[in-house]
Amino acid sequence: MNSSSNKLIVLAIYLCYVINHCHGFNPFAKTVVTITNNISPQAVLRVSCKSKDDDLGEHVLSSGQRFQWKFRPSVFRVTLFFCRFAWNNQVKRFDVYTPSRDQGHCITCNWSIMADRLCLSGNLDKYYDRCYQWK
């Protein structure tokens, strides 16, 4: 490959990085997801999270405790993490990271788990901070 082809490739990679970075997505940055038990002072929350490739195991959280992990989202926008939440006699499931909702908006995704809903905060644009009712 000649020198001008190498320069063109480097320029294309640089422009792709700059364009994506300016729109909130850095392909080299890790995303951090945090799950916090805010159900009630007495409730113990059991959390099991997975992706297609990773099983993060079960974590037992007392009130106010957190569970956190880091990952690099796929540039192909296919990364998905889902969790099972269990407390008292309740069992709920939710996709805590989906590319359509989170990629480019959520670098630090903070989930507050409550008895009637879960809330996401930490987005680059506060417009995307929101709560979801359990189904």
TrEMBL record:
It is found in: Secreted. GO terms for biological process: rejection of self pollen. Its main location: secreted. GO terms for cellular component: extracellular region. Residues 1-24 form the signal peptide. It holds the Pfam family Self-incomp_S1. Keywords: Secreted, Self-incompatibility, Signal. InterPro entries: Self-incomp_S1. Belongs to the plant self-incompatibility (S1) protein family. This is S-protein homolog. It comes from Capsella rubella. The lineage of its organism: Eukaryota, Viridiplantae, Streptophyta, Embryophyta, Tracheophyta.
